[in-house]
Amino acid sequence: MKSFSLHSRLTPRSQLSKKEKNVQHTNPYLLYGYRNKYSKNESIVSIFQLHNETINIWSHFFCFVLTILFNLRVYFSNEYFQYLTFSEKMVYALFMLGCLCGYGNSTLLHVFDCISVTTSKFLLKVDLTGIVLMIVTGFHSFIYFIYFEFPTIRNIYMLMPVVLISILMFLTWVPQGFLVKFRWLRTVLITLLFGSGIIPSFHLLFLIPSPIRWSIFFSLALMFAVMTLGGLCYAFFLPERWIKIPIIYIFGHSHQWWHFLVAVATYLHYRSILLSIQYYVTNNPKIFYPN
Question: Is Secreted included in the keywords of this UniProt record (predicted)?
Answer without folding.
Answer: no
